Amino acid sequence: MEMKEFHYQDGLRVSLFNLDHKAVPYHFHNEVSDMMYCSRGQITIELPDTDEVFTVHPDQVFQVPHPSKHRFVNGAPVGTPSRYVLLQIGDFDINFVPAAKDIAGQFAERTATQVTDGAVYIQDRKSDIIKLADHFEQDKPEVLDSEEQADVVAALRCFASRGLETAHPRSGRHS
Questions:
Q1: Which of 67, 125, 140, 156 is in the most buried spot, having the most CB atoms within 10 Å?
Q2: Which InterPro entries is this protein grouped with (predicted)?
């Protein structure tokens, strides 16, 4: 797994993840939700609090409301890399979940729900997200290659176009 953090300013945090077949560890956020855009491969999201599993394909989005425990897994066939762009709005925080192997076991061999036409909840930040996409289209962050830059711009434009200008309705409802 390779994580590239390159923007955290004015309450917008953007990262890019290249996943091999090591999953992002189970974690949760008290203050922000994870909005992810699959740009390559296939991403599986496991939500142990609700016992749900979702699969996201290229050009699709998914949002995990805070404080849901979750992890992102490369759902593509072994040997096929996957990539996603992550956007978080607000004050970043992260809490890793102990005993993750026990949690992972409950999702082994589970069938995932395919995500279609996912929406994301972007509060009142649509114009800021569009400006950020324009910025990254002109100025490539040093840590990204050209393909990753294009993926980030596509992700931000997708978040802005599919974004609902409100908070996630499930945020803060369960632990």
A1: 156
A2: RmlC-like_jellyroll, RmlC_Cupin_sf
